[in-house]
Amino acid sequence: MNPIELIVGLGNPGPEYAHTRHNAGAWYVAELARLHGGQLKEEAKFFGWTGRVRIHGRDVRLLIPATFMNRSGKAVAAMANFYQIPPEAILVAHDELDLPPGAARFKQGGGHGGHNGLKDIISSLGNSKDFYRLRLGIGHPGHKSQVAGFVLTKAPAPEQSLLEATVDEAARATDILFNDGMTRAMNRLHAFNADSTK
So which residues are the signal peptide here (predicted)? Predict the structure, then answer.
């Protein structure tokens, strides 16, 4: 039985960041809300935009933190503590430098890989790394000194279309996750490559 009760999409707040690569996780949660007829509204006590949807008969909470990326854990912990949701019932969607645009992966647990949002969430959940992740590939600029600028800029149009196709596919794979379990969802999503669908 799929245990997920809370799905979080990471990004930075404000219109200047809305279309930057670092906000890929937030795009995914917004797409889930759209697909399942949910509304996201700002909720101060959870430091973010929240909503509820039903996916295959299961009640799921959605959260896009309104904090900056490196304080994402503040929002996640506030909601998890309030609703008594354990880390292993949380799925966090985030941009992933180590995957190319057009690819995405589900996984459970692991380190933060230098991602400031994941780092803060792990710390805020009592150093638990047991939450699920949805890694949305954005590619790598080539050198670590370029990463900060890269994630905070908009992808060029061809790359953006790959990112959007991947977010759409990830949202559909989430339906499979709730209906058929993680293994089938992983099989579907990990076989997908938006680059090959053009």
Answer: none
